[in-house]
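User: Hi! I'm a student and our assignment asks us to look at how structure tokens line up with a sequence. Could you show me two examples?

Assistant: Happy to help. In each example below, the sequence comes first and the structure tokens follow. Example one:
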Amino acid sequence: MSGVLRETEVDGVRCFWVDTARPTLNAQLSFRAGLADGRLAQSGWLHLLEHSALHGRGVGSLQVNGSVGVLSTQFDVHGPADRVARVMSEIAGWLAAPEFEGLERERRVLQAEARLRRGPARASFVWRYGSLGLGMVSNGEPGLGLATASGLSALAGTVFVRSNAVLALDGPPPAGLRLALPEGAYQPVPPAGSGEAGSQMYRDESGLVLSGVATASRAAMCCPPMLQRAIREWLRDREGAAYAPWSMYEQLDAEKALVLAGSDVAANSQDFLLGDVLDLLHRLNADGIPEPWLDEYREELLQRMADPHAMAAPAWRSASRVLLGGQPQDLDAAIEEVKLVNTSSVRDAVLEVCETLLVGVPHKTVRDPRLPEMDFPSSDQPPEGQTFLSVNAPADTSFLTLTADDLAVTSHTGTLSLPIRTAAALYVYPDGQRTLIDKDGWSLSIDPARWRNGHDAVALLDDAVPPDLHLPQPTPDNPSTFEQAPFLQRWWLHLRRKDSFWLLVAILFTPLVYGISVLVAAQLPDPTTQMIIRAEPAWITVFAVAYMYNRYARGRR
């Protein structure tokens, strides 16, 4: 019977399929491991394996694709059933015994791709979860530089195994399909962690980004489109301050999901954006989701489910649910679940989202007292340690401090400091730049060209961070162009500063004082007194230079 969800096994791999009677076959082989799994030093390795496994396999009428999501890795093949069976069998065989002839090529491809893939939805993960766990979704795969053939093979032997896989098909399993995967253990979904601090805001130049954690449910799945509609009607239709609102729903573990919504925003919205967003959410919490909105979305969902082109959706949905530790769900159960959603259950989900709300807004957006801003860890005083002055001192009074435990940069606005011993990673760039990443997602960079003896500072930082946290990175898109200003320009800029006024006066008037001293001394009979008076301008100059060096060049320490 076509359209009925069926379950079987293919070489020990659990398989869900629906007979759609299509002349071609669509197959998806999924594994329970994704961007949020493993260590930061291995970030990007699953993506590298996926790319390597699929290289050169999609030609002609056969479409081959793959992806690495937050919690899973998929391999998709679509085309004539016999060719799908052959290529999917080849992919499984490669995953069981990987070969890496083009490893360096694929590494460069993914490093280039990583520069393009960081959008506002992915970036929101690091603000909530820091650098590790789910926060690795945001990180741009910095572990690619450490990937080796032996390390990738070991990872494949852990992830790409029968008990950790599930297959979805839109037709019966073809006779020639073989999934020669090794035995192994299922990889449980790691708990999402807290990520649920009180509501806060952060700065994101991509526009408006709303995110919050809710209990995974059909009602929570309805939250993103409801928030997207609210944003569209307010920000685009009423204010004319946006073009493309968006929304997403992302499963975090077996029980929690992340609800996201946002939009591009016009520059002229910065004065009212944050306040209006908070007012909008307050109204949704107080009044609930408008019944017509939910009715229209429910109607859209049910129509989509009944569409013959979506006949195989229960197979894909069941495979995804099982992979995350859930149960299969056929079409009738999914339809009934949608019908049971009401404004009350969606409102409860929205309330959950608002309790853990993070709001990203552009940098010039006016703050609202109802929502505290996430700020970089700072202090009034720098730590005691080895100091490196700016190459543009004394015009630039900032300085770098390194201790056994901390990296700090001090400027006129205060001191930014990160711990070294508990760092999540140290990004190592070919031009000598370094970026220290802490577990909360904050980062501090060292450009050796900016500091006097900057390469010594880099060497000290390299020694302080454990070697296994050194992550080699490709040359940055914007390499350092820092240049030291000419000597006279640095001192002139320093002396022009308001707090250097009396120092400038002392230096400029030293010749006048010296001339007066010479005239006065010439009128005195005692040679010793003459010598003391003539030396006064020299003492003034020495004092001025010493004062300037101590107060400014040493950062007022």
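Example two works the same way, sequence first and then tokens:
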Amino acid sequence: MIFEKPGKKSLKKTIGNILPAAVICDNRKEIIYSMRKVILILFSVFTSFFCQAQVEKKRDSLLTLAAGAKDDSTRIALLLKVSGIYSTGNFDSSFLYMNKAKKLAEEKGITGCDQYINTAFMQYYYYNNDYKSSIDYALKNLAIAEKSGDEKLLAKTYNNLAAVYNHFGNNKSAIDYSLKCLALSEKTKDSTSFPVRNLTASNTYYNLKQYDKAIYYSKRAIEFGKQFDNSFAVMMGLNNMAASYSDQHKTDTAISIYLQQLALAQKEEDLVLTCYALINLCQNYFSVNDPAAVEKYAVMLNKAAVDLPDKATLAEIRNVNALRYILRNEYTLAKAELDGGIALAKVENTDALGNLYQTYSKLYFIQNKIKQAEDYAYKYDSLQSVANIKELNFYIEDLEAKYETEKKESQIKLQQTELKQKSNFIYFLGAGVFSLVVISLLTYRNYRHRQKLQQAKIDELETEKKLTATEAVLKGEEKERTRLAKDLHDGLGGMLSGIKFSLNNMKENLIMTPDNAQAFERSIDMLDSSIREMRRVAHNMMPEMLVKYGLDTALKEFCHEIDRSGAIHASYQSVGMKDMPVDQTISVTVYRIVQELVNNAVKHAQAKNVLVQLHQSESILAVTVEDDGTGFDENTLKNSGGMGWHNIRNRVEFLKGKLDLQSGPGKGSSVMIEMNI
């Protein structure tokens, strides 16, 4: 869960609370937790440019200074500071003043303020959850930083991009820019930026569930925060480190670190961070079933929250109070707190809904109200499904934007080539006046050259058209698979689970003969098998592993599932794939190719063993699938009417790869595919 509110220093503080999803057994001693997101470190450039004071006196003072400013650059800077005052509370006013600054810069032809204007719009669209616009302005700043050659500015821009990608769930891009930022900051010895840079890295690794690295960078943030008297970095580093330990079920360690964070927040008189530390402590003490500690810190939290300006956090406080009442067995009061929290979360903080739904589910389980408990568990699962689809859409948007950019660059290069050719033609025509022979030769040469350029343009357009059509088919196929998987899981899955629940209720109210009871149990077993089969089909249509963890992990899990099914012994090997990112479109396409080849080995080759290998060396990705089946004559594939090999070849052509097939009757088969990435 993410908290976002300004603190008392000129800095936007974004804190992620650890909200446990507890499942409490009848004896209330067995508790299982799934931890939520922690910290999102915002743009470090904001710390030196935007003031967070929100009083009208401050605004009026800045506007007076802007009106009397002697130069336009100063006036633009002051308008942006006024926009910063409203950046977290009044988005319309914030947009008004940043737009005034942008128009003034355009009218006066001032380009020196572009990076600050872009940062303001990036922040505005960030808080309004407009992913595409926020990324567009962040990339504009990246172009400015690269052009200027200022490595410190480039490091700040990398940090901002990592923060934006973190916020919108694009973990692959976030870690890429985060590591670039750290490397460049160390190269330039910009040590004062180390606390924030390491906080961004710790959050990114936490989102990837690489807790050891998250803890490492949290410790570095704390170390540099102490060195440069940055108490904010120290508190946030403690928060990230505690969250990582909590996710690993090292609750005692997490609690001791949260206590350090609380002490520092109280010393700094930071009300927002104090409340967040108290919420985290209540959640973790609840996980170890310590009612006295929960009561103590909940009382402190409710006293502190009276003056808390962050209304979005009130939903989380309601959730803490509900857990507090659950420990007291005061279920009516707990329900009232949850209802109030849900009403707030739907308006102020939709991220808190999942935690409130989980707590509601636990409340009903404790009261043995299974139907209501499963209803709220289903609501929580639905929220997670929406989040996963949203993350996938971000990846698709990035791919589409990249494709359009490359297409435009290709057109520009072609136009530049044509312009250059026309200039050469004019030059040689003027020089050819001295000799008719020279004019004829140059004209013929120019004509032939233009023919080649035109043919090259036609070939390029035909290739682009073919690739576009292939890409559209593949994207359409994956989109439909994703939709069908969601419909199966959320629609048919929910219905089958409901039927099972109803049948179990009927069983308790019916008197049956032993034969009928046995038949009834067989029906329940068949229904369980149907649910498992439906989930397996949904998983095969769009594996969650592929979207979240990449190609290497997804193929490993796929082979493990095939091997566990008993249909065939499947083995998987990978070389050079550790921490090597693969483009999402390539990953999906390669996964489908391997899936088709393994299925062919199971269905048609009568193989007992199949081996899948994935190897990456520099820019070459190689995939090999071998089996010990009956094999076949390679010439028969040319006349084959099946769709399997046709689909495989189309996908290989889309990846611009090379396919090598080795097979023969009784010799098994081996398929190797190589492509540039």
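Here is something you could point out in your write-up. The first strand starts at residue 2 and ends at 6.
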